[in-house]
């Protein structure tokens, strides 16, 4: 009996020892696979950073900016970078259109300086400095469109249609010059960001210039990207996280890991280049907000997302996020995503951390509930307005945004 008992104990210990060895082997192999993936991604990002864009060439670029209280970044970075960019493109191939309204800092003074610098260099332009403030806008009597009844028992001016109208006003010189037989190849929308001419060069060269739209990545507090309102992955979902690798979609993540132009359904992210052709079509592509009747159900969508949903070229030529073009809302943010001494802008630690957080977020979270809330409200709207439709459903979120004297507000 004692011998049998000893044999059984020996087998159990051997079994436990075998399981422990197997577990250790699995852990070691998993670590090797994980490290191989991390190093492979780091190497791919480093190689992608070495790619050089094609020359600007003879393409004509229409540059658009809207500004409000941006004096500091205009004077410290933006004006200098824009002057360099227009010089690189060439006076004969560029036009600058800027709209500013209601700033209470000296944004107007900064833009007057820009106007003088562009004139000295022979750069064609139109710069509108409007004295109308947000307070002036919201103090007007409500009109037929763009106003909404809110939970504050007031009829208030919606933010998105207001911004869409400003962008459309800034686009007007494009149409005026079309009448004079002056056509442009690309539209470049520039936010109040820190950028360099080389960044724009890379952006315009995305996919060798073959795209409906190509966007940068924008950062305010790296490593988190900034523009969550407009960015949607290749399947139309919001980013699963604000840090790399951002996306839920496998297709978007695969391209991003290789440092390649990343297919998305929508983006803006500080700077976006668009094929100019749809802006010349009849009817022409314009910025808009969702209908007021849909917005009244506590639904909103960015004009910078809806423009891609409305663009007929999005489905054929694609909307792309270029991870090799990174801009910042401050000099510090820009430097953080352009580290010196390394081709890869993402450290190994960021890659390792991001991969696992993204994996866990995809496993244990879903966009289903948020998207279902939006879908039910859109379905209700369609039932109440049978002849209406909204093509930009992936842009929609459960929010209501109105203009305020000092900016804008959620209600």
From TrEMBL:
It comes from the Eukaryota. It holds the Pfam family CAP59_mtransfer. The lineage of its organism: Eukaryota, Fungi, Dikarya, Ascomycota, Pezizomycotina. This is Polysaccharide export protein. The chain crosses the membrane at residues 20-45. Keywords: Membrane, Transmembrane, Transmembrane helix. InterPro entries: Mannosyltransferase_CMT1.
């Amino acid at each position: 009996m004692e011998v049998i008992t000893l044999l059984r104990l020996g087998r159990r210990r051997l079994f436990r020892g075998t399981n422990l060895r197997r577990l250790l082997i699995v852990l070691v192999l998993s670590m090797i696979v994980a490290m191989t993936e991390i190093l492979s991604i780091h190497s791919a990002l480093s190689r992608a950073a070495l790619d050089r864009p094609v020359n600007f060439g003879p393409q004509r670029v229409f540059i658009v900016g809207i500004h409000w209280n941006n004096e500091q970044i205009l004077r410290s970075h933006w004006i200098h970078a824009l002057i360099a960019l227009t010089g690189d493109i060439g006076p004969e191939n560029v036009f600058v259109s800027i709209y500013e309204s209601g700033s209470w800092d000296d944004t107007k003074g900064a833009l007057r300086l820009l106007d003088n610098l562009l004139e000295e260099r022979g750069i064609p332009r139109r710069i509108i400095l409007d004295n109308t403030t947000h307070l002036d806008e919201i103090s007007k009597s409500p009109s037929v469109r763009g106003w909404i009844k809110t939970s504050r028992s007031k009829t208030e001016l919606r933010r998105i249609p207001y911004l869409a109208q400003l962008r459309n006003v800034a686009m007007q010189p494009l149409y005026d010059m079309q009448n004079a037989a002056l056509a442009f190849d690309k539209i470049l929308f520039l936010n109040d960001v820190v950028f360099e001419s080389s960044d724009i060069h890379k952006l315009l060269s995305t996919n060798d210039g073959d795209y409906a739209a190509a966007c940068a990545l924008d950062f305010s507090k790296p490593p988190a990207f900034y523009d969550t309102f407009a960015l949607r992955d290749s399947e139309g979902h919001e980013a699963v996280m604000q840090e790399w690798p951002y996306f839920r979609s496998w297709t978007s993540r695969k391209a991003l890991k290789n440092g390649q132009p990343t297919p998305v359904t929508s983006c803006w992210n500080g700077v976006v280049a668009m094929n100019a052709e749809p802006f010349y079509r009849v009817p022409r592509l314009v910025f808009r907000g969702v209908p007021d009747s849909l917005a009244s159900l506590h639904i909103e969508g960015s004009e910078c997302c809806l423009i891609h949903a409305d663009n007929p070229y999005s489905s054929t030529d694609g909307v792309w996020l270029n991870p090799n073009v990174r801009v910042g809302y401050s000099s510090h943010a820009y430097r953080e995503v352009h580290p010196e001494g390394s081709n890869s802008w993402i450290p190994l630690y960021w890659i390792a951390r991001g991969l696992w957080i993204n994996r866990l977020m995809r496993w244990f979270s879903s966009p289903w509930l948020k998207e279902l809330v939006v879908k039910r409200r859109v379905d209700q709207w369609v039932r109440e307005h049978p002849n209406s439709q909204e093509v930009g459903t992936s842009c929609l979120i459960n929010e209501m945004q109105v203009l305020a004297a000092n900016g804008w507000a959620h209600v």
